[in-house]
Amino acid sequence: MGAGEWKEWEFKALTDIWTGDANGKGNRFIPTGLMGSIRWWFEVLVRGLGGKACDPTDGRVRCPNHGKRPNEADHHCVVCELFGCTGWARKFRLMVLDENGRVIQNQIKAKQTFILRFIPLRFIREEEWCLLNATLNLISKCGAVGGRTVLKPSKEWGIEDLGKDDLGVHNNQVIVKNSRKGLKLRKNDIILKIDGEQVSSIDDIERILKEKRHGDPIEIEVKKSNGETEKIKSWAGKRHHIDFGLVKLEHSPEDINCSRGEAEKYVIDSQWRKGFDYKPFAWASLKYFWCVKGKYLARLNNNESTFNMVIGRPSEKEKSSDENSDKWIAGYKATGGQLPESKKVFSFKNTNGKALTFGFVNPKEKIDPENMKSRLKDAWGDEFNPDIDFLTVDQILGELFNHS
Ligand SMILES: [Zn+2]
Questions:
Q1: Which of 181, 279, 350, 351 has a CA between 20 and 30 Å from the CA of residue 269?
Q2: What does CATH list as the number for 164-237?
Q3: In this protein, which residues make up the domain named PDZ (predicted)?
Q4: Which sign, positive or negative, has the C-alpha torsion 213, 215, 218, 222?
């Protein structure tokens, strides 16, 4: 003992929560997926408060600083202090429990209650509890949780929500073995071409699709079971990679109190490692964050989506716009030597009535808040009042901390 009492936050899942494992299977619950996601939002918050947070997925910048010993200043950043890094263990154990106190083993489903129990393994400072509490509030108010697939492009490919297991090959022809309600690809359809390229094996399909993101438009030429050939406007990937992870915080510990000022003072303390400046993830900060509650961007039909209107994918966007800006917002997969880039706009709709759209701006890529507001206005029209609906750092931070 001596490390102190555990603290619990109770959530309700508003959508299924995807924490998929390395093989992209989402039916198991993987606590490290949730942990990675909480850490990612903690980093966003810390950067928004003026602190420095390393990116633990990037070997070039992640802590520790090997020139220092673990207890010396400048060994690790303020986020690693709580979440750990090589040579500095995480200060807590996270248990994810159902309302009866049992450890959750299977994927968390919409409407399910789940409890995050943080058990201190070493002493956790008041300010750390406070930042954690603010992070979990931020996720509930303006964010989403799930595996990092939501933030980094997924390796798992798909075709109109179907995957490898749904396809079969017979006589050099790829046949749809399983389909689902609402999809245009039907059972026993033969896939002839994708985007004009002939396919005769699953490998062919994988090669064409693995470079695409979930939701990218594609054209599939199929031979129907009646012998007719048809061109289908469809999408790459799987939509469950797009809409998941909305949660609502129902109960928080009552003994956590701190102001924004106290949190800011803590994250900029001189003991934390700060001597790294790595531009690729500088955008992942609450400073550049925005969110719109109650609205979502969606696929309107196979050719159009409000999502594409906002991220400006070249084929959909009529207006001339800056290509690099669009590329930055839309993100891209890793290609020869180039690291993958996350998309910067995320939108969620769920059947329980909560919708949310959030994202990041980057003035250096000519996407400032005004530019983003006008993109959203294009998509939502009069339903969207930028002055009221578009929340940014000060409004959001104001809700996360106590006033003092
Ligand atoms: Zn770090």
A1: 279
A2: 2.30.42.10
A3: 181-231
A4: positive
